[in-house]
Description:
This protein has helices at residues 2-18, 93-110, 127-149, 157-179; strands at 22-27, 31-38, 48-51, 55-61, 66-73, 79-84, 118-120.
Amino acid sequence: MILIVALFFGVYYLARFVSTANIQIKMDELGIKITWAKQFLLQKRSDFEIEWIDIKEFKIEPDRNWDKFKIISKYYDKFEILHNTDYDGKDDYSDFIKDFETKVKEINSVNIESNNINRAPNFYESTLGLLFAIFLIIILLVLTIVMIKSKYHISNIAAIIAVYFGALYYIFEVYNHRKNK
């Protein structure tokens, strides 16, 4: 049993070690400079810069374990950060996001409309996310009616509660993100 527990934690920390990198991001009037402080295991990426005029849109997608920040350029591929939410408060990712959005608003207010940087909606703000939330509301209502009208005893109430909490959490996230939009 001790070997299984040790193996579990060893694999967990090995995965963290292999899949973690640190970057330094500097923003100025010309653009963003990304410098790799610590790279992924067995990978060598070069530092690069993205000018503000080259940015077409950006996307901030929150999730339970990882927050995704993506910059989509007009001329080349995208730049994407997956931020582990375990580090919230231990790094300056949230400050970077606030500063980035502030800088984009400043640039958009100065530039002509053809060079505006757009914020792409995340899944909770998208039409598909809204449709899925409506579908979940309907399913929860039907499930509630079926449980009330059913003559049979519900044998696994914990599973039903888990379904309700998961669906309600998703519906709350859709509401919260669309409200702040």
